Structure formats: structure tokens, C-alpha cells
Amino acid sequence: MTTIAFETTDLPIIGAPMAGGTTTPELTAAVARAGGFPFVAGGYLTAEALAPLVTRMRETIETFGVNLFAPNPVPIDRGAFDAFASALEPVAADRGVGVDPEPVEDDDHYDEKVDFLIDNPVPLVSMTFNIPTAEVVDRLHSVGTQVVATVTTAAEARTAAEREVDALIVQGPRAGGHSGTADPTRSIDDRATVDLVRDVLAEVDLPLAAGGGVDGVDAVDELLQAGASAVVVGTLLLLSDEAGTAATHRAALQSEDFNETQLTRAFTGRPARALVNDFVRKFDPIAVDAYPAVHHLTKTFRAHAKKNGDPQGLHLWAGTGYRSARTGSAETIVKELGGRFSRS
């Protein structure tokens, strides 16, 4: 079996690719210095914006990955979408924010970014939100790039294996931020990531990394013992010095005012785990399966909340292990998480 790039680092810790500016070049560099595996977060970027991040990563370390959002369009229930937009409009107006109720669709510049990575090969490319097509897998393989699919069920793992990906990232439902599920309309039941890892390994013979709800060294140990080659951490890095986490988000993660997380479609139209705030309480009951249309609909509202320090209107992504996130250098955090499992 081929050795996967994330299996070659000193520590079996992967810094999650947190899109939207949270995974900064400084954060990936810190993960690399610690001996972990860094990912460039390619989501929400054009190919032109991705290019300098890849160049900077190349200058930092040879072994790294790039993560992309694979398109997964879901037909919009226009009636439900319009009802959601109508409910949002007066709340936004109270804050002086306008809302455009016309649905906006896009594919996150996916084809252009794949073309860029064909022309400028990197060691590893991972996909989330959908399983990459066999054609895309073949194209990336043709330039020597390993391909990894994010999966959230054993069935998704089987599909990924059939398309000849090199490895998997198994994401449990307790992970913060967006679920990588290939079926964003499904109901996602709560379960431990280690149980999902065992289910996947019973179905496919592929190397895998795993993440979701990781709250410390014992969780890392449990996932490695279950058969994961590496453990993905994201929420535990949100308070690190190098993360691009907004000040309002940082404060909420440390506040006693926010004491639970929930999977919700309210912010983007796709299931994502966040701290429960007023926005979740008001809009989750009427949330619709319409990513990225809802993402675009709420974008200005959320940007206003971020700018004005309003945690009740912001998407406060967080996994269930968020209480274990701490301040300090990401290099130190990664070393303390993975040091006892060093491969060197």
C-alpha cells in the first residue's frame, strides 16, 4: 500500500483546512514546524487567490495538502427559501443590513482550482462536500498528486474507494464547522468518531485520518488505536495565536454565555456545527437545504455581526471539544497533542 503524505510527518496530527481565513499561512507554518501535516484551505477562494498560498506553503515545507470544496448542488425549494429570506429580512433591517432574496449559486471556482493544481502539482489534494469524480481523481493522479476524500459514512467511503482515491479523511458528526457529507440533506445522527472509523475500516482497505470532537491527547490516542494514521484537529486550534479566528468568535469560545454546540443549516444551508446563539435558535427551525444560496443570503448579515462584535449573529463554528481549545502558539498545541505518538 502506498504511503500517504500525511503518514510521513513526525507527528500524526493534521491541521484542519478551515476556510474563510481561519487557516492562515502562519497557522499552516506553525503546524509544519511542530511536525504535523498542514493543509492550505482552498474553499471560498478563486484559483488566483489560492496560488500565492500554495507558493508560500511550498516555501515552508515540501509535504502538505490543499483542500477544495467539491460541488454538490441541491435543488432549491424556492418556497422554503423565500420563507427563510422573508424571516431574515426584518432581523437584518433592525441591524441596518440589506438582504438580497434572490438565490445565488456558484461552484466555488472548483474547475479552475483543479486546473491550477494540475498545472502546479502539490503532494496531496483533499475534497470535501462531495466525493471527487473518477475523472478528477485520474487527472490529479496523472501529475503525481495523491487524492483524499472526506467521508462521513461507510457508504461514502465505499464510493470513494470505487473512484480510486488514495486515502480518506473520516469526519465524525462532532466536528466543528461544515460537515463534509456528500448528502447534505440527510439527518446526521450523533455518534463518536471512533465508531465511524471502525465502520469505515470494516468496509474499505484504505489509509485514513480521522477527526471530529477531538478534545485532547486521549482522543488522539483512541483514534490512532482504532486504526487512523493521523488525527485532524481544527477547533482545538481556533484560539491559537496564528489562527485567523475573528475576535468575536474567540471571545464566544471562552464565554460562559455559550455552552452548547449544534449542527445547523441556518447559516449556510448546509449542516455545520456551531455554538448555539440567537441566530441558530431563531432560524434553525426554518432552515433550508440550499448551499451555497443560504451562505450568500446570510453573508452580509454575518459580516456585519463580525464587524460589530455581535456573537448572536455570527456563525460561531465549534466542535464538541471546544472547551479544550486554548490560547498560545499552534506549534505548542500540536506538539502537546501529538508528541507522545511521534513517528521519529
Give an account of the 3D structure:
The chain has two domains: 5-71 and 107-240 and 326-341, Alpha-Beta Barrel (TIM Barrel), CATH 3.20.20.70; 74-106 and 259-315, no CATH class. The chain is built from twelve helices and eleven strands. The chain has helices spanning 25-34, 47-60, 78-94, 110-119, 134-142, 154-162, 193-203, 217-226, 247-253, 278-283, 293-307, 330-338; strands spanning 13-15, 39-41, 65-69, 124-128, 146-151, 167-171, 177-178, 208-211, 230-233, 261-264, 272-275. The chain is globular, with a radius of gyration of 19 Å. The model has no long low-confidence stretch (mean pLDDT 97).
Helix and strand topology:
Layout: E1 13-15, H1 25-34, E2 39-41, H2 47-60, E3 65-69, H3 78-94, H4 110-119, E4 124-128, H5 134-142, E5 146-151, H6 154-162, E6 167-171, E7 177-178, H7 193-203, E8 208-211, H8 217-226, E9 230-233, H9 247-253, E10 261-264, E11 272-275, H10 278-283, H11 293-307, H12 330-338
Helix pairs in contact: 1-2, 1-12, 2-4, 3-11, 6-7
